[in-house]
Amino acid sequence: SERPEWYFFEDVMGARIAGDGTLLDPTPIPLRLENNDPANDNGRNPTVTSDGQNWLVVWEDQIWNSGIPYPNLAGRRVATDGTMLDPNPVVLYQYNTYSFGPIAPHVVWAEDEYLLVWERSGYYTLHGRRIGADLIPLGAPFAITSNGYGPRVATNGTDYLVVSRSNLAHRVTHAGVSLDPAGVALQVPGGWDFRGPDVAWNGTHWVAVSPSIQYPNAFQNRISDNKTSFETLF
Questions:
Q1: Pick from 9, 59, 14, 12: which is nearest to 37 by CA?
Q2: C-alpha–C-alpha distance, residues 134 and 131, integer Å
Q3: pTM for the full model?
Q4: Cis peptide before 151 (omega within 30 of 0)
Q5: CB neighbours of 43 closer than 8 A, spacing ≥ 6?
Q6: Residues 78-127: pLDDT tens digits?
Q7: pLDDT tens for residues 64-90?
């Protein structure tokens, strides 16, 4: 959000919405406010998930060292009443140099852990990291694929499916193993489009929806949850 009184400042804000659609926070919840010094110290591209009780919001952030921003992914947990469970943002993944860091994060909760996925800027590679309920990482980051960008992740309650704008799908186990690093092609006539895709679990199949750059349409692929192979049903 740009601040109404000073639009050069960009903050990450949140608002709770009740099950009946009632806005519970007419005054938004400040999750990550931009700092005055250094300039342009703001968070970007927030993503949110729930563990069934609380929320986790993750965004692109940075830590400054000698005037240079070192990119990372940071997050905070929000309780059901809108209060912060983490007084300050928690760094979930810190990149070790100032360029080609993590962008386009997406996060989901499965069973007893979060899976955080992201793209490495400039390299079109996708990576993931398992995060505990207390926001302590469960092991090192791992590679999902060397060919992908703009990731989205869904869970069937235990394992995961990651899709990307390359129109490829990748299964990831609960233990953080990428089963399909080369990816399985989604059937999308016309190919790549910068707006998609997205993915969900419908209780029986993975459902990936992708727009096409060639046609003004969205295409749906249902994918089986077979542990040894994929089957595109239509």
A1: 9
A2: 8
A3: 0.93
A4: no
A5: 10, 11, 12, 31, 32, 34, 59, 60, 61, 74, 89
A6: 999 999 999 999 999 999 999 999 999 999 999 999 999 999 999 999 99
A7: 999 999 999 999 999 999 999 999 999
Strands (E), 81-164: 90-94, 102-110, 113-120, 125-132, 142-145, 152-155, 160-163
Contact 165, 197 (CB under 8 A): yes
* Both structure tokens of 167: 């129109």
Angle 184-187-190 from CA coordinates, rounded to 5°: 125
pLDDT attached to residue 234: 47
Q: Residue 12: what residue type? A: V
109 forms beta bridges with: 114
3-state helix, strand, coil in the chain (%, to 5): 0, 50, 50
